[in-house]
Amino acid sequence: MTTSRRRKRTQRLVILAAWAAAIVSYVVYSRSRGLSAIDAAEELRSVLADNWWGAPLFIAVYVLRPVVLFPASVLTVLGGIAFGLVGGVALTVVASNLSTAASYGVGRYFAPASLVDRGPGPISAAIGRAVHRPFETTLIMRLIALPFDAVGYLGGFAQLRFWSFLAGSALGTVAGTIAFVSFGASIDSLEDGSPEIDLRLIALSVVLTAASILFARWLRARRPLNPQPAALSPEVSS
Fold first, then answer.
1. Is the pTM of this model over 0.90?
2. Could you tell me the mean pLDDT of each successive run of 10 residues in the chain, 238 residues long?
3. How many angstroms separate the most distant Cα atoms in the chain?
4. Using CA atoms, how far apart are residues 157 and 161, in angstroms rounded to an integer?
5. Structure confidence at residue 151 (pLDDT)
């Protein structure tokens, strides 16, 4: 093993150790105070709503949230409570995409040199399809509601093209963002159990989800995964 590879391996181990320490520290702290994710978000709610710097703080917390595995759904609902429907959707879209980009960067940092063409097998085939169709793959992962942060880590680890990955993630989360923020905008506290759901927003979410699926299928039909090379003309082949 070369010196540079040994140094990078050491750096990765140090980062993983620090990450694990952060998760353990948060778990110990929250349990010692009997603080659930909802309780923590409730403590943050008044800070966000009552200060001019609440919006940038919300974005910063959302981006740093994956470090301690804090649920994205809770913060998305909190965005609706603190900033209303329009402001909550706008801030959550920005924050969630920055968070996804950060998760992608972490996954990319820990990725091996290449995961493609590592011999036959279903895993290699699946990775190959994802690499060739990063937008569609990411869109589908979002639409089937895989764990939010896991999609970012997987995208980076599989070394999907960044902008295609981010576009698929952004489109695939729009419907869910609207639904969760709408839920938050209709209640006064995360502990409220009887929100008023706007059926028009639910319909909009369904339309956006259906449009996303149709768009992914259209892309798949337009760009086949493994196009066959064009046959050589007689003049060239001879």
1. no
2. 77 88 86 83 83 91 90 92 92 96 92 61 66 85 87 91 92 88 83 58 67 70 51 42
3. 79
4. 11
5. 93
Please enumerate in sequence order all residues whose Cβ is within 8 A of that of 182, keeping only pairs 6 or more positions apart, or say none: 80, 85, 197, 198, 201, 202
Q: How many helices (H) and strands (E) does the chain have?
A: 10, 0
User: Rounded to the nearest 5°, which phi and psi values hold at 18?
Assistant: -65, -40
CB atoms within 10 A of CB 211: 13
DSSP for 92-153, written as a single string = HHHHHHHHHHHHHHHHHHT--S--SSSSSSHHHHHHHHHHH-HHHHHHHHHHTT--HHHHHH
Q: In whole angstroms, what separates CA 72 from the centre of its chain?
A: 9
User: What pLDDT, on the 0 to 100 scale, is given for residue 214?
Assistant: 75
Q: Which residues contact 49 (CB under 8 A, 6 or more apart)?
A: 81, 82, 83
pLDDT, residue 75, reads 93
Q: Which residue has 């940038």 as its token pair?
A: 56
